[in-house]
């Protein structure tokens, strides 16, 4: 059974398929791959994030929540490389 058989897709600016009317879309480039035994684990670097018009559902503490709505500009990754040990805090500072 194909769980995406009835899902509507559209092409983004780069010609890649994305789910139509998604609450958010992350555009990533390959960061690293790791051997996972019988599979390969791929991690991505977020290069761009686009927000849709609907609020996303966030799963937190065993429940789904809708965050407060706010307008936010399109986010693009900073052009300079950030040290890997900065973690998520570095991404948070780049959003403002």
Give an overview of the whole structure.
There is one protein chain. The protein is mainly beta and 96 residues long. It has 1 helix and 7 strands; from the N terminus they run βββββββα. It has one helix at residues 87-95, and strands spanning 9-11, 17-19, 24-35, 40-51, 58-60, 63-65, 75-76. It has a 3-stranded antiparallel sheet with strand order 3-4-7, with no helix packed on it. The protein has a two-stranded antiparallel sheet with strand order 1-2. The protein has a two-stranded antiparallel ribbon with strand order 5-6. It is extended, with a radius of gyration of 16 Å. The protein starts with 8 loop residues before the first strand and ends with a helix. Mean pLDDT is 78; it is low at 83-96. Residues 70-96 are annotated as: Disordered. It comes from Streptomyces violaceusniger.
How many extended strands? 7
What is the H/E order?
EEEEEEEH
Domain module count = 1
Biggest β-sheet strands, sense, barrel: 3 strands, antiparallel
Uncertain regions spanning at least 5 consecutive residues: 83-96
Q: Give the N-terminus to C-terminus distance in angstroms.
A: 42 Å
Computed Rg: 16 Å
Can you give the helix content as a percent range?
under 10%
Structure classification:
mainly beta
GO molecular function, one term: FMN binding
Domain Flavin reductase like: 2-66
Region (Disordered): 70-96
Pfam families: Flavin_Reduct
């Amino acid at each position: 059974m194909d769980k995406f058989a009835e899902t509507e897709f559209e092409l983004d600016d780069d010609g890649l398929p994305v789910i139509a009317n998604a609450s958010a879309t992350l555009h990533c480039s390959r960061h690293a791959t790791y051997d996972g035994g019988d599979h390969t684990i791929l991690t991505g670097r977020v290069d761009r994030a686009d927000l849709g018009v609907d609020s996303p559902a966030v799963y937190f503490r065993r429940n789904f929540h809708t965050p407060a709505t706010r307008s936010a500009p399109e986010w693009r990754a900073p052009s300079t490389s950030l040290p890997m040990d900065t973690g998520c805090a570095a991404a948070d500072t780049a959003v403002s």
